[in-house]
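quick q for whoever's on today - can somebody do inverse folding on this one?? i tried earlier but teh output was garbage lol. tokens:
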């Protein structure tokens, strides 16, 4: 029943505070995996790889299990274990013997919540059946510190897997491969996709000394892990959705945002309950507000002439923390959507003409750089330039102005060169 299936699986469901409300943890599945894939003899006992694929209460597909650990001192000699899941055979409608043709797209988009480990996405085409070759893309996930209210260490992340970055890997030998002298393997372009899966390898997740000590501390927090075999390594990755995206050389969406948003959002800065994003200038703003409230009350009845610097500062102070928060939420939604974009963070707008001796400047950070309001005409020029510029693809920039000697150069500025100097947010 397609109707009930679509209601049951709400793929568009996302929370304002996803990481805070997501309380699905490894220990919930520790006692019952159901599937044992392999076993490896050790001096003391038999270590078994276990894996499970299920749906959790958040309607996500969960890839969870544990595998034998790799030897941290010599992972090549003892690579440990691996576990994988794979979807059912994909078939083209026109010819069921063939896989699905995705060559009109540029890659996959994954929305995952995971434990900070490294995973592999793999695709199998007809080459796997004839030559034992599959295409593999290794990607990393993120984690967070558990709290008293939420013991989960999993964190959401949107990942793009470009087809061109999948590498060919020989998974098994075949007679055709041994008999053939031609070792050239065509690159993966999205054609004839017959299987899609995910894999966890302990050899790709060898803990260094500092991480091992931290893992031991975290293990002691869980009563279920007291007697757990030390030869096993746990993993957890939940998939919210898998989509494909088209190759887009230019931005599809230009988003005007707030220059008070810092270039890096750290833990504890976003407060969804209060609709607030804590920024570095909030304390300064509060002190300015306090000074104004402590001043002479008679000054409120006096007219004040503000110069350009006062206008710039006033423009920043008039923005509420709630406005900055929702600007940031808009950025998050846009980045998660899979659309190609340019995010333009501005400090404010004015009606000044472009005749002043200054030029547009695009920078990657608001730290150590004076971000001043700009005219609406200048913002419009940057937006129009970004729509047709591949150098503006998937970039977040701060727009400001800097003084130059001589006449105004607004009509002569090379916006493409300015965008080219800004690093890309998402590596395709």
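ok took a stab at it. sequence:
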């Amino acid at each position: 029943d397609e109707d009930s299936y679509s209601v049951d699986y709400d793929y568009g469901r996302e929370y304002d505070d996803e990481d805070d409300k997501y309380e699905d943890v490894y220990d919930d599945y520790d006692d019952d995996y159901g599937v044992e894939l392999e076993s490896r003899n050790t001096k003391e006992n038999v270590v078994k790889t276990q894996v499970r694929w299920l749906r959790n209460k958040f309607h996500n597909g969960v890839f969870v299990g544990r595998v034998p650990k790799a030897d941290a001192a010599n992972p090549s000699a003892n690579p440990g274990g691996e576990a994988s899941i794979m979807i059912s055979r994909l078939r083209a409608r026109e010819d069921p013997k063939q896989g699905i043709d995705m060559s009109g797209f540029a890659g996959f988009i994954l929305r995952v919540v995971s434990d900070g480990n490294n995973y592999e996405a793999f695709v199998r085409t007809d080459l796997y059946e004839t030559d034992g070759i599959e295409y593999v893309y290794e990607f990393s996930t993120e984690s967070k510190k558990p709290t008293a209210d939420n013991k989960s260490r999993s964190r959401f992340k949107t990942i793009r897997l470009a087809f061109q970055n999948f590498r060919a890997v020989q998974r098994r030998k075949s007679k055709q491969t041994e008999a053939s002298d031609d070792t050239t393997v065509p690159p993966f372009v999205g054609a004839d996709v017959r299987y899609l899966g995910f894999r966890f390898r302990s050899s790709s997740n060898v803990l260094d000394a500092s991480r091992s000590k931290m893992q031991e501390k975290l293990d002691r927090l869980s009563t279920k892990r007291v007697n757990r075999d030390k030869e096993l390594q746990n993993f957890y990755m939940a998939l919210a959705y898998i989509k494909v995206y088209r190759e887009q050389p230019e931005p599809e969406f230009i988003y005007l945002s707030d220059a008070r948003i810092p270039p890096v959002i750290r833990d504890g800065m976003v407060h969804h309950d209060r609709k607030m994003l804590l920024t570095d200038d909030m304390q300064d703003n509060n002190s300015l507000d306090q000074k104004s409230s402590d001043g002479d009350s008679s000054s409120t009845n006096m007219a004040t002439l503000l110069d350009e610097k006062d206008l710039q500062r006033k423009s920043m102070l008039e923005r509420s923390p709630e406005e900055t928060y929702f600007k940031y939420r808009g950025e998050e939604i846009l980045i998660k959507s899979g659309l190609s974009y340019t995010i333009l963070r501005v400090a404010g707008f004015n009606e000044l003409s472009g005749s002043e001796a200054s030029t547009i400047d695009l920078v990657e950070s608001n730290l150590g750089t004076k971000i001043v309001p700009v005219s609406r005409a200048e913002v419009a020029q940057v937006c129009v330039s970004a729509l047709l510029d591949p150098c503006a693809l998937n970039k977040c920039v701060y727009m400001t102005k800097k003084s130059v000697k001589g006449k105004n150069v607004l009509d002569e500025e090379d916006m493409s060169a300015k965008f080219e100097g800004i690093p890309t947010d998402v590596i395709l």
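fwiw The CA atoms of residues 219 and 225 lie 6 Å apart. also The radius of gyration is 27 Å. so keep that in mind when u check it
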